[in-house]
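Try this one yourself first.
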């Protein structure tokens, strides 16, 4: 058993398979899940695990070269907006409908237990060298 890092075997395995440019959608419990991408559902109950906890855990494991979120996040969920702005200075903002369209191209979807609106981000994987 791993001592540290992500212990969920489904998520750890999915992250190990990602390559440069692959998309990872981290979404709240209400985001429609597109057909196609691998899905790791971490939701245990409303709010558990939180969007912030999952983003923090993923950033400890991934190199991210870009991120996209819905522009509606700024008004509907200021805490998530502040989190994303702090982690991703070049955060791209698109409409929520456009984010849903873009998420169909993700290779992996990680569903959190977050129950606040617009706690969603599409991450683009980078490389460590």
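Now uncover the answer:
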């Amino acid at each position: 058993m791993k001592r540290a890092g992500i212990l969920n075997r489904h998520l750890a395995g999915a992250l190990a398979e990602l390559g440069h440019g692959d998309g990872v959608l981290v979404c709240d419990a209400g985001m429609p899940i597109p057909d196609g991408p691998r899905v790791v559902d971490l939701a245990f109950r409303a709010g558990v695990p939180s969007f912030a906890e999952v983003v923090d855990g993923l950033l400890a494991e991934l190199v991210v070269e870009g991120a996209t979120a819905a522009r509606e996040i700024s008004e509907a969920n200021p805490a998530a907006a502040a989190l994303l702005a702090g982690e991703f200075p070049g955060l791209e903002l698109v409409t929520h409908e456009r984010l849903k369209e873009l998420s169909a191209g993700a290779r992996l979807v990680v569903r959190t237990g977050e129950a606040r609106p617009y706690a969603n981000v599409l991450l683009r994987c980078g490389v460590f060298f």
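Discussion: The chain has a mean pLDDT of 95. Helices lie at 9-16, 51-61, 73-76, 78-87, 96-103.
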